[in-house]
Design goal:
Elements (H helix, E strand, L loop, with lengths): L1 H12 L26 E2 L13 E6 L16 E6 L17 E5 L2 E5 L26 E2 L7 E4 L16 E4 L14 H4 L3 H4 E5 L4 E3 L4 E7 L14 E3 L2 E4 L1 E6 L11 E4 L13 E9 L4 E4 L4 E11 L3
Antiparallel strand pairs: 1-2, 2-3, 4-5, 6-7, 7-8, 9-18, 10-11, 11-16, 12-13, 14-15, 14-18, 16-17, 17-18
Length: 311
């Protein structure tokens, strides 16, 4: 109780009481100087002297807004006098050097006490508070099959509450349900036009439970009889294969530099099924929210099945 009372007097006297911050001006999301935590004693909390501001304790604070890329201005550590009440007779001196007696709320203390320098800073509470970034989605494996992401209110310890939800949940796989076409690849790499034409773009069939997807490719030339496109062809060392052009994500560091890649994922005849379709598979990256083409593990933004030019 004694130390608690002294701690209160200490912060009272040196103008470091942790009070609620005023609201920021409209549109301000990062106050000048950032938002600091309260000063707290670090390490030993015992003050070896009972009066006179003769000893010091070590205090620390941390920048609450740093994780939101809102930097703080000022020191993170400081030594402050403890047990600041003036010593009474028969003590040899009332205060330790360099302090002198000052009257605070009717009680004699040993000061003066330094005030925190706040020049160039404008501490305030942004309207929505300061949040961390959302975490990546993770699968809860509950009865509903929920994907969840969370965030934390960084400014709350400073008396600045946040508005909005701290948790978001959904039962759908968070990766996009559809991907772009890869038609741009025919302009990026004009050599593709020699052998191919852009043909099918089917939507992904997504399995939400494990965030995987398939795209069904034509695996036969049955339509050729009726003047349809040639979807399978013997090509080089490949025996009767379909062709899939992939538009890779700009963030993909592997694969062709022009982000366009033609894959021949299976043998049409050897793996042919009665319904004449064969799936290629994708897996959602829950951190980047991009689909990976499973055969290579490359991030994909779009695709098309190609038909072969005659010959």
């Amino acid at each position: 109780m004694f130390l608690r009372a002294i701690g209160y007097l200490l912060f009272c006297c040196i103008s470091r009481v942790f009070t609620a911050l005023p609201a920021c001006a409209s549109g301000v999301t990062c106050p000048k100087g950032g938002i600091w935590s309260e000063w707290k004693i670090s390490g030993d909390t015992y003050c070896p002297t009972k009066c006179g501001s003769c000893s010091k304790l070590f205090y620390v604070r941390h920048c609450l807004s740093e994780d939101a890329k809102c930097k703080c201005t000022g020191p993170t550590t400081q030594y402050l006098p403890c047990n600041t009440v003036a010593c009474q007779f028969p003590a040899q001196r009332t205060c330790c050097v360099p302090f002198v007696t000052v009257l605070v709320n009717g009680t004699m203390h040993c000061g003066p006490f330094s005030k925190e320098k706040t020049e160039g800073t404008e501490p305030c509470c942004p309207g929505a508070g300061i949040w961390t970034e959302w975490t990546e989605h993770f699968y809860k494996n509950d009865a509903r099959g929920t994907y969840q992401k969370t965030r934390q209110c960084l400014s709350a310890p400073a008396g600045c509450p946040c508005t909005g939800a701290a948790v978001q949940e959904q039962i759908q796989c968070p990766c996009p349900r559809t991907l772009k076409t890869a038609e741009s690849c025919m302009q990026i790499d004009t050599s593709l036009n020699v052998d191919y034409k852009i043909r099918w773009h089917r939507d992904l069939i997504v399995t939400d439970m494990n965030c995987t997807a398939i795209m069904e490719m034509e695996s036969n030339d049955d339509q050729m009889t009726y003047g349809g496109p040639k979807m399978c062809k013997t090509l080089g060392p490949y025996i009767y294969v379909p062709a899939l052009v992939l538009l890779l994500s700009a963030s993909e560091t592997q694969g062709p530099s022009n982000k366009c890649y033609v894959d021949r994922p299976f043998d049409c005849e050897a793996r042919r099924r009665p319904e004449n379709f064969q799936p290629v598979t994708f897996t959602c990256d829950l951190e980047k929210l991009l689909w990976k083409y499973d055969y290579h593990g490359w991030y994909v933004e779009g695709y098309n099945q190609l038909s072969f030019n005659s010959g």
